[in-house]
Amino acid sequence: MAEARRVKIAPSILSADFARLGEVVRETEQAGADYIHVDVMDGRFVPNLTIGPIVVDAVRAHTSLPLDVHLMVVEAERLIPDFVSAGADRITVHQEAAPHLHRAVHQIKELGASAGAAINPATPDAALAEILPDLDLALVMSVNPGFGGQQFIQSALPKIDRLRAAIDRLGLAVELEVDGGVKPENAGRVAGAGASVIVAGSAVYNDRVSVAEAVAALRAAADAG
Ligand code: DX5
Ligand code: ZN
């Protein structure tokens, strides 16, 4: 029997109340989350504009959880050093926005952080084939990046499954993260397809459930998947 993988939960603070970010991050750590997911958008690679290193630095002071920084930006190589200095533990760049993905991944590692590469819904998993052994994390987007609160795109599931098979076949310790539209209702399927990290924004920060309840519900659903 395959051993159950304990799925890690990475709440995305994109859906949090930015006016009380420190408190929210502390609450998220107390809720038992594994990472804090930070969505950085530049208004160019994606239509939205969010936060920069200054906010990562501010968040860093309120938690000892690893900061999982998702760069949805062009020319990531220019920004990576500032995010590492601000306290990012892991930095993920987009395959579609990084013409020199290998260089960007190794730049992150040389600066002492863990490195991830993300792919959009329309990008095939094969786009990560060459870089997979160099990665600490592969990120499958299950929405088109840019906004929280979107619907999960179902074609992400077979893509997660194929990446999980590739990671296991090569015997790699690469984390497989899934981001976008994940809720307790589909977290089991996402985990069942082979994800090891689940990102959730609007399912964690909303006025219906507490952060603790949301993290517990996601974990229960993922562990059952
Ligand atoms: C989308 C971001 C996600 C998003 C997740 O561009 O990368 O991290 O905020 O939010 P939900 O869980 O609401 O889809
Ligand atoms: Zn994200």
**What number is the mean pLDDT?**
97
- Unreliable stretches (pLDDT < 50, length at least 5) are none
Give me the side-by-side strand order of the main sheet. Answer: 1-8-7-6-5-4-3-2
- Are any ligands bound, and if so which? D-xylitol-5-phosphate, zinc ion
Report the strand count.
8
Secondary structure: elements and pairs:
Elements (H helix, E strand, L loop, with lengths): L7 E4 L9 H10 L5 E6 L11 H8 L6 E6 L3 H11 L3 E5 L6 H10 L3 E6 L17 E5 L14 H14 L5 E5 L4 H10 L3 E4 L10 H14 L1
Parallel strand pairs: 1-8, 2-3, 3-4, 4-5, 5-6, 6-7, 7-8
The chain binds D-xylitol-5-phosphate (DX5) and zinc ion (ZN).
D-xylitol-5-phosphate (DX5) binds next to β2 and β8.
What's this model, at a glance?
With 225 residues, this protein is an alpha/beta fold. It has 7 helices and 8 strands, in the order βαβαβαβαββαβαβα.
What characteristics describe this protein?
34% helix; binds zinc ion; alpha/beta; 225 residues; binds D-xylitol-5-phosphate
How would you sum up this structure, described in words?
The longest helix is centred in the last third of the chain and has 14 residues. Strand 7, helix 6 and strand 8 form a beta-alpha-beta unit. By secondary structure, the chain is of the alpha/beta class. An eight-stranded parallel beta sheet has the order 1-8-7-6-5-4-3-2. It is globular. Helix 2 packs parallel to helix 3, helix 3 runs parallel beside helix 4 and helix 5 runs parallel beside helix 6. It is 34% helix and 18% strand. The model has no long low-confidence stretch (mean pLDDT 97). The site of D-xylitol-5-phosphate (DX5) has 22 residues, from strand 2 and strand 8.
